[in-house]
Amino acid sequence: MGDKINIARRSAIIAVVSRNVEQFRPQFLGFIGSDEGMVIYTAFEEQALRVANSGRKHYSARTIAEYIRHQTALRQEGEFKINNVVIPDMARLFALRFPRHSGLFEFRATACHPRPLRVRRNESMHEEATT
Fold this sequence. Notes:
By secondary structure, this protein is mainly α. 47% of the residues lie in helices and 0% in strands.
């Protein structure tokens, strides 16, 4: 999880957030633009893809975040500090980047997001292959 994120992947992630800024909390762009935030999100994305590719139709974004916290706590380099408020935004970003898995997470209305996430199906989305 601590590997460097390649520039193309980082740019693609930031571009999705920038094009859909209204879907995220105002602080999320700063989080995803930071090195630690990008590493946390890509770890989240990798785990979400594993869950989706296992055949699960619905899953908890918070469970994935807790798994990442647990895995990094076991490592010598320390653990990630994942603020709970970024978890729904990471789930929204995942749904935007991988529209075929947009139903994996449930999105509730909040003060910041009065309506659930809407993925634009007609927009050309690039789904990145994972290794």
